[in-house]
Every structure is written in C-alpha cells, then in structure tokens.
Design goal:
The complex is a heterodimer of chains A (about 300) and B (about 1050). By secondary structure, chain A is mostly helical. Chain A contains 13 helices and 4 strands. Helix content of chain A is about 65%, strand content about 5%. In chain A, helix 1 packs across helix 8 and helix 1 packs across helix 9. The radius of gyration of chain A is 19 Å and the shape is globular. The chains are: A mainly alpha (about 300), B alpha+beta (about 1050).
C-alpha cells in the first residue's frame, strides 16, 4: 500500500503546485490579451502564449485547500463517479475528464479521504495512458517522489515542473488542444466543487470572493479554447463559457495597489506584494454562476 | 472312486457277467483283482459280496446246467433298462476320461474268459452309447482288448512294440530287439488316453510295478516301461509316435551350451543343453534362485544369452528373431487380462489382433470354441475384475490367460509358474489344459514349483537347475527321482513311484539336492552335502547324452501368423481400449466431470462485480482474466498428464506378451493417443464452454479450445512417456509436480521474464531459453495475445494502435534517448574532456542508427543517416555530431507528425462510433463485453519500470510488447520477446496464435517420437548405468585415497 498511497499524494500535489507558482508574472499579459475585439479576430496564439495562459489557470489545490481551511464539510457526492470513466471514449472526453478526476483526487486528498483515492488514481493513470502522456506518470518519477516525500519542497518542485513539462510537451507535439482541455476540465471541476459545497455566511464570504476572481481566468479560458474553435466540440465549450461570461459580467473587481515591502524571513530576503483586489459579487450572481457551472460540468462528465 | 460309482460298476459287471453263459471263475477273479486295486482287504470282500448278490437272482452255475441245451437268450428287458439307468448315473459323475476307463474295464471283464457273446457285446455297446463314446473308438477298444495278433490290429490308433518287422500298414511301430511278445498300445483320441497290454511272459515293469499279461493298464503321462533287457520305453516316445504325423507343424527345439552372465557379473545360467520336439511338455524346476525364469526368458527369446544359442528348426532364435517370433508364445506368471473387459471380450480382441483374414463370425466361433475348451464358456460375459476384486476364480483367470495364447496356436509355448497361487484342483485343471495342447503337437516349457505328483507325472521331460544356473538333470521325471535316490544311496532307489498309489514325490529330489551337512550335535549347518557344481558333474558324467545325430525332419516354419495391417491393428487396439474404458464407470465419470467441475469452480470463484454499487457483471472490469488464462494452461497440462500417466504402465504386462505377436508399436501407441486425444478434446470443450461462458469471454471458444486441447494432448503424450519409462505408479505421480511446477513458474504469468534470475536468461530482450521449452508458456502467450488482439473490440483498432504505439515509442522514448548520447558528447567536448564519448556508447549509437536506417517506416520516407561509417571513435567529430543531431530532429519530427495523424485517425474513428446515443450505447457494450482492461495492462506491460532498457550496446523496448513486432528478422530466429503479436517464421511474420499452436504440436511430435523409441526409458537406463559406474569409480578413488592416507600415517 505504500506506493499507491504515495502516488496519490504525488498526483494531488502535481495538480496543486502545477499552477500555484506561476500566477504572479503572467497575470498582466493574460488580462492584456483579453478583449472582445480579440475574440472576434482570427487569432492564432503562439505556443509560448498558450503555455503561459495554461499556467495561469488556478490549481484545484488552491480551491480545495481553501474549502478545507474554511472548515467546510467534505462532500463525496460532488465527485465524478469512478465508473464514469467507461463513458469516455474520445480524446476530447478523456482529456477533459483527466482534469476532472485529477481535481477530484486532489479534493479527496486534501480532506484525507484516502479510501477510494486508489481508484481515482487508477482512472487518472488510465486516461493519461490512453492520451499517450503516460510518461509523465511513469514509475521512475513516482519512485523518486516517494523517496523524497518528506522533503515537501522537492516534491513541489518535481510536480510543478512535471505539469509544466507535460503542457510544454503537448504543445511541442502540436497537441496543445489536449493540454487546453485538461486545464479546462480541471478548472470547471474546481469551480463546480466550490460552488456546490454547503456553506454558511461568514465562510461563504471568502469563497464568493475567490469565485469572483475567476472572472479573469474565464476570459483566459475562452481565449485558449478559441484557438481551436474550428473543432465543433471546442465551439460547444466556448458557447457554454460565453453564457457563463455573461453572468460574470455582473461581478466587479477593483484592484488596489500598495507598495511591495522587503522582509527578511529565516535569513532570506523576500519581496512581499501588498496589493489587493476587491471583489463585488451578489448572491444572485453566485446562484446563477452555480447553475451554469453545474450545467457545464455535468455535460462534461456524462 | 466314490462308493456309489463302485456300486454302479459292480452292477454293470454283474449284468454283463450273468448274460448268456453266466459268470466264470476267471471273471470273478478279475472283479476281485479289480477291487483289490481300489480298496483294502475287508472292503474288497464287502464289494465282492455285493457283486455276487447282483449276480444271484438268476445265477446259473455253468457246471450244473452244462448238459442242458443252451438257448440263445435275448438280453432281458429288465437288464437293459437297468444298464441304461446305471450308465446314465455314471454319466453324471464321471469325466469322459473316466468313462473310457470304465468301458475298457468292461471289455477286459469279458475278455478274461473270452466269451464274446452277442448279448454281452450288446450291453457294452449300450453303455458306450450312453457314455457318448464314438462307435469307431468303441470298436477300436474292442479290437484292442480282444485281438492278440499284431497283424490284425491295423489301425492308426494302435502302436505295437515288438522285435522284428513292422506287422501291418497303419499302426505305429517301435522296434525292440530283446522284447519277448508284443506290447500293444491303444490311443483313445477323443480323451487322449493311452492303454497298454502285454502279450508276452517276461517280467516287464510299468512305473516300477510288474505287468500282468492278463490285464490292460492305463498308460499315464510320464509312465515308463522297463524290460529286463533293453532300453526303457517312455511315455513321450509313445506319444511322439502318435503325434508324428498329426497336422501340427513339427518343431525341433535345441539349446546348445547356453550361458548367461548378468551385467553385475553374477552367472545366471551355465552350459545348458536341451533338445526337444513337438508334442512334449517340459518342466523347468529348481530351488528358488536357481535360474528357472532366467532360463525360460532365454529360451523364449526375451533375453539374449551370453554364450550358446537356441535353434528352432535350424533358425537361431536370438538372431532370426523376426522369423521365429510368431511361433513362440509366452504366458507370464502375472495376469495379462484387461480387468474392465469380460472374459469373452478379452479373448475376442486378442483374436482380432492375431487373425487378419477371419470374418466377424469366424472370430466369434473361434473364441467360443476356445472358451468351451477352456471350460470358460459359461462365464464368458462376466467381467474379469482385478485379482483383489474377484469376479472369476484364480484358475479361471489362469486358463483365460492361457487361452489368450492358445488362440493363435503358437508351436512353442513358454509358461511361467502356471499353478502358483491356485488350489490343487485348479492347478491340475490348468496343467491338464496344457497337457492337452501337447497332443496337438505343441512344445511346452513350464517353469513349475512344487508340483503335485499328478502334475509332475504329466511332464515328458524335466530340467532341473541348481543354484547358479547349473543343469543337474534333464530327462524323464520319474527317472529323476530314481537317479537322485541312487546317487544318494537310498534304499529302494530303483522305485520311482509309490507302488501302492503310484505317487511320485518330486520333493524327494529337492531334499536330496539341497540336503545339508549335520554337525556333531545333530543340527543342520548351512553347508550343502553336494554342491551344485558336483551335481552338475554327476549329470555330465552319468546322464548327459550327446546330441542325437539323426536330425529330425522338421517342417519349414510357418510364416508369422497373418497379423492385421497397421490401421486395422490400431482399430482393434482402439476398440479394446475404448470398451475397457467405457466399462469403467468410475473412470469415465471422473474424467468427464473433472474438466467442467474445475472450470466451474475456477470461473465462478473469479467472476466478480467490480463496482460495489452495481449488480451487473462487466467483463472489462474483471481483474482475473489474465490469471484465468494462466490457470487454463495449468489445468490443461494437469488434466492431460493425469489422464495418461498410467496408461502404458497399466498395459505393460500385456505389452510384453504382445511383443511376441509382433504387433506394431506405433499402431498401439496411435490407438492410445487417439483415445486420449478424444478424451482431451471433450475435456477441453467442456472446460472452455463452461469457464468462458461464466466469465463472459465472448466469441473465442474455438481458439481457447484449440489451445487447451493442444496443451492437453501434449501433456497426454508426455504422460505416456513417463508411464512407459517408470516402473511404479507412485514414481509416476511423484513426477507430475516436477513437470507442472516449472511450467507454472516459467509461464511468464506469475513471474515476469524481466524479473527472474539473470543466469537463466531473465531481463533480456527475448524470452529466456529455459522458458522456451515450457509448453505452457507458448499456450499462455497465445491465449493472452489472442484474447487481447482479436477480440471484437480491439480488432477494429489494433492495426492503428500498433502503429500509434510504435510512433509514440520512437518519438517519446527512443529518439530522445539516442539524442542524449549525442548531447553528452557535445557537452564533454565543450568541457574539453579528452574522451568525450565511450567506445560502448559509440557502438550503441552505431548499432541503433544502423537499425533505424533499416526500419521500414523511416527508410520508406527516406529519412536516413548516410554516414553510419563515421560513427566510430576515430571519425566522430562535431561535424558528424551535428549531422546526427539534425537527423534525429528530422526523425522525431516525422514520428511526431505521424503519431498525431494516427492518433487523430483513431480518435475520429471512435468519435464517429459514438456520434449518436444509440451508437454510443452499442460501442459501450462492445467495449465492456470484449475488452478486458487488466489484461490489456498486462499485454501492454504498463507497469514496466522503464519503457526501454540498454542491453549491451543496444536499446530494447519494454513497453507495449503486444504492439511490437519481432525486431530480429533473421530467417532462423524464431524466438521473440514475450507477448509479441507476430512471430518470425523464415522471414515471414506469422500471427502468434497460430505460431504457438504449431510450436505446441511440434513439442507433441517430439514427445511422440521419444515415446515410440522409448527414449526416456533408455535415457534413464543409461543414466542408471553411468550412475553405477560413477559409483564404482568413486569407491575405487576413495579406497585409493584411504590407502594413501594410511601410507602417509605410517
């Protein structure tokens, strides 16, 4: 049981750290690129851009950790049932649900629900293998991780580069679409879990704020998908997101700039970003988002 | 003779005597003498009184009524009725032989006074008639009793011994110069009895008792007539005369100076000489360990002598085996019966095997005739049963055993201890049966132990052996007693048999031969009075005759009997085996149920529903399919072995006998194999139907059956090999694990070939050699590859996925790995490393680039590295490095684009297949029912720690073996990596399934050849010899070593 358990940890961390570290720098460019005119234009994003935009999609770990920290109860019912994997036959479906199962795995792991993680792990492996990206889940790496699991920083590094490697690889291989779909699945599943957990006011505040922040990510997502709009399946996804975008239009975000400060932590000098953003989101909007996200997500996993 | 019979006889005598002229004194004297021979003094009086009382009612003293004219009276009706009654009564109790004796006595009675009136003769005729004695024989007896002049006795049933000329045409004749008068011998053919009477007055002795010229004697087996002067006349001489012109072939059988030394140096036989011809029965006797059976085996041609030869009609038995074989029959001590068959069937199949030309009716008739003559007709439909589970008696078994040989009428018959374990009654029956055969001109050798007097006297000759294979006597059995008594200086040494009862006690001989010296306290010591070599010396000096110079005229040996041709033999063997199996209900039921029950157990236990919330069994989710395939191979091996492991072992005694029939071994084996194959075919079908349907393995019944069947049949033949080579059932069953467990270990299912000891070939590119000889590995591989590749789901994608896999491997693992070597060079060069690349790495680059140049995909698209000759340590430089890197980039680009292309095609195909909900439903069903994900994982080796490994200076692919065609396309290299989808067969690619089936059948053929030549048993024997030699060498080394040690000590 040792290795599977560690494997689970690894896969969860993989998703967790993949995006976490890369948010800072890319935010600017991603928002700059986003405009209505751009969507109308015939854009072909270059590979580097796609890679950076994919990196900007928030990691499911962030959401799950937030939920857990806020003391919100774990809900098994929200997860995509294991046996649904049988329904995923095409690469399109497989890539989307690789993201979904990955997110579920992270969610379970953060909550330490390890009983059924093995099966989710197996699903992730199967899908990865079917998509021919199994080399990023190979035994060698898993072993290296299990050996260094006590050193959380090195695990972080490996998983992070791992995901980055995978998307770079896919893009290199002219299979950026797969990468985009995995990211999309991950993101939608995170949103789905966050919007559907049972919350009560003081706690829901933070979550709603975080939800409102996804407005920027949504724009990025649409832009990514737009690259492959010739594919009718992609077009479907875009259509769904456009409806979501209409709802998100009601969310307003105010960015408050503050000077960064320099601090010394454990003898190392670091730069602390003191800027913050203020999110305004109404209950009705949350409700509407919840409904649309559920609709998109359920269509995705069926 | 019972009281009742004696009474009846008295009545008969009386009826005859009182007719016409009435009883004469001589006649009364005859009756008295007759009674004296049977009874003691007082009883004689009693019966004589009884006889008188029967006479009394109309007793007419001839003296008193002599003056009255005698009217010829007809036999009174009352007497006739009485006669009939008595004769019928006697009929019920006496054997035919005894009845003949009674008839002779009646004639004798009349003859005493020579009053052959018509009434007396009429009564005798009536009796003979009721006794069912043939009229011509009755007449013969009558002539024999009444006529004294040899000239009148002109019949082939008469033998006359006299001096001078042969008296007439037809009768046999032995000349005896010094004989006074005539000895006349009558043979009663129907019962094979000889009667003797003497017309002279000199004192002749029959078996040591004087012969009266008034009387007629029964001349029994082993009898001897001694005359005051001249040679004794033996029974065999007489019998031989009668038989010399019977229809049976004449055989002369001669053994000259036979000697046998065993491989261990022990001498089994020394200088044995004998000369026999048709119509004799010869006993081979001796204490235990004297070499009786050894002699029998040498004489019958089973064993070869070290010295001397056996000559049959001028042919050397051991050299012209093929010519002589057919006329020799051998009846071993053990049973040769097939227990499951009836008495009739046992004989029936033997007959069929022997006679080619007979029709079914003729065979039935023949069998019935033999059964009748064996006295077994009434039990012909009883099953023989085993000696423990008796259905028929021991004597009946023995007689049936003899019958098996009789049916083909061999001219020379060897019988090993026919009476052992039988009651004295049964023993006598059996021996009489053999004795009767000699009448038909057979020469019979019998090894016998402690025969009763009756039996002992049946022999014509006896060979006595003493310890160490010395021949110490050869000659007439009764003489033997006298001979040994004489040497032992016993009183009465000239009397061979008990004068009163005629008994001969052969035990006397052995007590004389083996008598031991008594010490001063009267205790017998272990030392023998007369050593075997001394006995042998006596024999040589006193008795041993030079071979008679007059060589008998013997016939040409008949052609070996007309055995059926190969196919017919096979059919008969087949039928015999089949019916014996069908008759064994337990065997049939177990064999037929074994496979389905195992299949049910196995399949039902491992059929499970993966999803705890669901009630629907899904084949795709069953993790146990691979283990099931593995178990299939093991069960097939096991079932196949068990069925066959005892087959030949069980038959070995019968086989030994059948070697004398010169039957084809291959037809025997083929019949065995056909039956086993049929059983295996049924078992396989039952197993596969039940196992596969329970587990939901769809649409592959035929393929599974073929593999299961092929493996079972191979196991059958292997089992036959063991059963032919080993000599106990326990050994055979101990061997089975040795055959099965390595198969389990080296199938590739339990232990991956990448993870077994490197010393036996683990972790190489190809399957280890040791596993290549495991039939189960071929079967398992065929099952896995077939199940994975040819199921209804995968077969729609297999060719695309195979391509995709290759492209992916090249693109993702292979080219990057090669690049790595080149990049290392560059880095080392930059760092001014004097040796930027090792010789091995350079060699690897050369090897792989050369291979890649030849690979069909890249070469057809003309992506080739021209300068492979520069890939060596001397010529490789930055320029070449850049070319190489350039080449790699081109290659990788090519593989990437093609991979994407194929990947898209597959995706499009799937997308199309699920484009509507109905289609999607169908697709899902197909996928669930036919594709097993766990088996796929195994076949694709998804758990491989490394996708490729470096072995020597080559890179070897480890993932996706089931998509990887064999890399080594050398026409002669048949071996591949495990689970290869195709195999290289002289440069062509053959699907693994068929290839592996062929391999299994090749194994079967090899095993069959080994079986045919009995290779395993020969191998074991030579190993045994080597072992004993090695042991001897080891002992001698040890003793030398010990000597040197002791020398050193001194």
């Amino acid at each position: 049981m040792k290795i599977p358990r560690l494997t689970t940890v690894f896969v969860s961390l993989f998703f967790f750290f993949a995006i976490l570290s890369c948010q800072q720098g890319e935010r600017q460019q991603a928002t700059d690129l986003l405009s209505d005119s751009l969507i109308e234009a015939d854009v072909r994003l270059d590979d580097k851009m796609i890679r950076e935009m994919i990196s900007s999609i928030p990691n499911p770990v962030e959401m799950s950790a937030l939920l857990q920290k806020s003391g919100i109860v774990y809900s098994q019912d929200l997860l995509n049932p294991v046996n649904n994997i049988n329904n995923y036959n095409t690469n399109f479906k497989k890539a989307l649900n690789l993201g979904v199962y990955g997110t579920d795995l992270v969610y379970m792991n953060i909550y330490d629900r390890t009983i059924s993680t093995l099966r989710y792990l197996s699903n992730v492996r199967d899908l990865a293998s079917d998509l021919r990206v199994e080399q990023f889940f190979d035994y060698e790496t898993l072993n290296r991780l299990s050996e260094s699991s006590r050193n959380i920083d090195s695990v972080l590094f490996i998983t992070n580069t791992g995901f980055d490697d995978m998307s770079r690889y896919l893009i290199d291989q002219n299979r950026g679409n797969i990468s985009v779909l995995i990211s999309y699945g991950t993101w939608i599943e995170s949103l789905y879990i966050a919007t559907n957990v049972q919350t009560v006011p003081p706690k829901s505040e933070t979550i709603h704020t975080r939800l409102g922040e996804q407005k920027k990510i949504l724009d990025n997502m649409i832009l990514l998908l737009y690259t492959y709009r010739n594919d009718p399946y992609f077009q479907n996804l875009i259509d769904d997101l456009m409806e979501l975008k209409v709802i998100f239009d009601d969310v307003s975000i105010t960015y408050v700039y503050a000077e960064p400060t320099i601090q010394e932590v454990d003898g190392t000098v670091i730069l602390v970003d003191n800027s913050s953003s203020e999110v305004n989101i109404s209950e009705e909007t949350v409700e509407a988002i919840t409904q649309q996200v559920s609709y998109i997500r359920n269509k995705m996993v069926e | 003779m019972s009281e009742e019979i004696l009474k009846a006889l008295m009545q008969l005598f009386a009826i005859i005597a009182k007719q016409d002229v009435g009883l004469s004194d001589k006649e009364r004297e005859f009756v008295e003498n007759f009674l004296k021979q049977q009874l003691n003094e007082s009883a004689v009086k009693e019966y004589l009184a009884l006889f008188d009382s029967f006479i009394q009612p109309n007793k007419q003293k001839r003296q008193g009524d002599s003056d009255k004219p005698q009217k010829p009276k007809l036999t009174s009706v009352r007497d006739s009725v009485k006669t009939l009654g008595i004769a019928k009564k006697i009929n019920k109790t006496l054997t035919q032989k005894q009845k003949v004796v009674v008839l002779v006595r009646l004639f004798e009675l009349v003859n005493t006074d020579r009053n052959f009136t018509s009434q007396r003769m009429a009564i005798i005729d009536t009796v003979a008639d009721v006794f069912n004695i043939r009229p011509e024989e009755t007449e013969g007896i009558s002539d024999f009793v009444t006529k004294d002049n040899p000239h009148e006795l002109d019949s082939p049933d008469i033998l006359i011994i006299k001096s001078g000329e042969k008296p007439n045409e037809q009768s046999h004749f032995i000349e005896s110069d010094q004989l006074e008068g005539n000895i006349i011998i009558l043979r009663v053919n129907s019962v094979d009895l000889y009667f003797i009477r003497y017309t002279g007055v000199s004192e002749l002795m029959l078996n040591g008792l004087p012969i009266s010229n008034q009387r007629i004697y029964l001349f029994a087996n082993g009898s001897v007539i001694k005359q005051p002067k001249g040679k004794p006349i033996f029974y065999t001489d007489i019998a031989a005369k009668f038989l010399s012109d019977s229809s049976a072939i004449n055989v002369s059988f001669e053994a000259n100076n036979l000697g046998l030394t065993f491989p261990n140096g022990y001498i089994g036989l020394r200088d044995i000489n004998l000369y026999e011809y048709s119509g004799k029965m010869v006993a081979i006797m001796g204490g235990s360990g004297a070499g009786k059976t050894t002699l029998l085996n040498v004489l019958s041609g089973i064993d070869n002598p070290t010295n001397g030869k056996v000559v049959i009609n001028g042919l050397n038995l051991h050299q012209d085996k093929e010519k002589v074989k057919g006329i020799i029959g051998y009846i071993p001590q053990d049973d040769l019966l097939i227990e499951e068959l009836t008495v009739y069937e046992n004989l029936y199949y033997s007959t069929k095997l022997v006679y080619r030309d007979l029709t079914e009716e003729e065979i039935t008739e023949k069998v019935n005739k033999v059964l009748t003559s064996l006295g077994l007709f009434h039990i012909k439909d009883l099953k023989v049963g085993s000696p423990l589970n008796k259905k028929i008696s021991g004597g009946q078994r023995k007689r049936l055993n003899i019958g098996l040989e009789l049916i083909r009428e061999p001219a020379v018959l060897f019988v090993d201890e026919p009476t052992s374990g039988l009651s004295s009654r049964d023993s006598e029956n059996v021996m009489e049966l053999l004795r009767e055969l000699t009448v038909r001109g057979k020469l019979i050798f019998v090894v016998i132990h402690q025969p009763s007097s009756e039996i002992y006297k049946m022999f014509d000759n006896v060979i006595i052996l003493d310890e160490g294979g010395h021949q110490i006597y050869y000659g007439n059995p009764v003489e033997a007693v006298i001979y040994f008594k004489e040497i032992d200086n016993q009183i009465n040494s000239d009397v061979g048999e008990c004068p009163r009862c005629g008994n001969v006690n052969p035990e006397t001989i052995f007590s004389i031969i083996e008598s031991r010296i008594v010490d001063e306290y009267g205790r017998t010591t272990a030392t023998r009075k007369v050593l075997p070599q001394e006995w042998s010396g006596h024999y040589v000096s006193k008795l041993k005759k030079e071979k008679e110079t007059e060589t008998q005229n013997y016939d040409m040996l008949p052609e070996a009997f007309k055995k059926p041709n190969w196919l017919k033999q096979m059919k008969i063997f087949f039928a015999r085996d089949l019916f014996s199996k069908l008759a064994n209900t337990q065997y049939m039921v177990l064999n037929l149920l074994e496979a389905p029950i195992l299949a049910f157990l196995l399949a039902y236990v491992i059929r499970y529903i993966d999803d705890p919330t669901s009630d629907v069994y899904i084949f795709r989710d069953n993790e146990n399919i691979m283990p099931y395939l593995f178990m299939c191979t093991i069960v097939a091996m096991f079932v196949g072995l068990i069925v066959s492991a005892e087959e030949i072992y069980k038959d070995r005694k019968i086989l030994k006998r059948e070697t004398f029939l010169n039957l084809s071994r291959s037809s025997y084996l083929s019949s065995k194999i056909s039956i086993l194959f049929i059983i295996s075919a049924i078992q396989s079908a039952l197993f596969v139907i039940i196992g596969n349907s329970i587990l939901g393995i769809k649409g592959m019944y035929v393929e599974y059956w073929l593999i299961f069947f092929s493996l079972s049949t191979l196991a059958n033949v292997i089992g036959l090999n063991i059963s032919a080579a080993f000599n106990s059932a326990v050994t055979i069953y101990i061997l089975i694990p040795f055959l099965i467990i390595p198969q389990m270990v080296l199938t590739g299912a339990m232990f991956s070939f990448d993870k077994i000891n490197r010393n036996i070939g683990g972790g190489r590119e190809k399957v280890p050699v040791i596993a290549e000889v495991m039939p189960s590995r071929w079967a398992f591989e065929a099952l896995v590859v077939n199940q994975f590749k040819n199921n209804d789901y995968e077969k729609q994608f297999y060719h695309l996925r195979k391509l995709e896999s290759e492209l992916n491997y090249k693109n993702v693992y292979y080219i990057p790995e090669l690049r790595g070597f080149a990049e290392n060079y560059r880095a080392a060069k930059m760092a001014n490393n004097p040796e930027p690349i090792s010789k091995d790495d350079m060699q690897l680059l050369y090897n792989e680039v050369t291979k890649e140049n030849k690979s069909p995909m890249a070469s057809t698209h003309n992506i080739i590295f021209e300068n492979t000759h520069l890939l060596n340590l001397d010529d490789f430089n930055m320029k070449v490095h850049n070319q190489l890197m350039n080449y790699f980039s081109k290659l990788q680009e090519f593989y990437r684009d093609n991979f994407n292309h194929i990947n898209n095609r597959i995706d499009q195909k799937v997308t199309e297949m699920v484009s509507t909900p109905e289609k999607r439903e169908a697709y899902q069903q197909l996928y669930n029912d036919y594709y097993n994900s766990y088996l796929a994982r195994f076949a694709k080796n998804s758990m491989a720690p490394l996708p490729l490994v470096r072995l020597g200076n080559n890179l070897v692919q480890k993932i996706d073996p089931v998509y990887l065609s064999p890399q080594d396309r050398n026409p002669l290299s048949f071996r591949t990596h495990f689970l290869a989808p195709e195999k290289n067969f002289f440069g062509n690619l053959v699907p693994t399934f068929y290839f592996n089936v062929i391999i299994i059948w090749i194994f079967t053929i090899i095993a069959y050849i080994a079986l045919y030549y009995n290779a395993l048993s020969k191998l074991l024997n030579s190993l045994g010899l080597m072992g004993s030699k090695a042991g001897k060498i080891w002992l001698s080394i040890q003793s030398r070593f010990n000597k040197t040690k002791s020398v050193k000590k001194q």
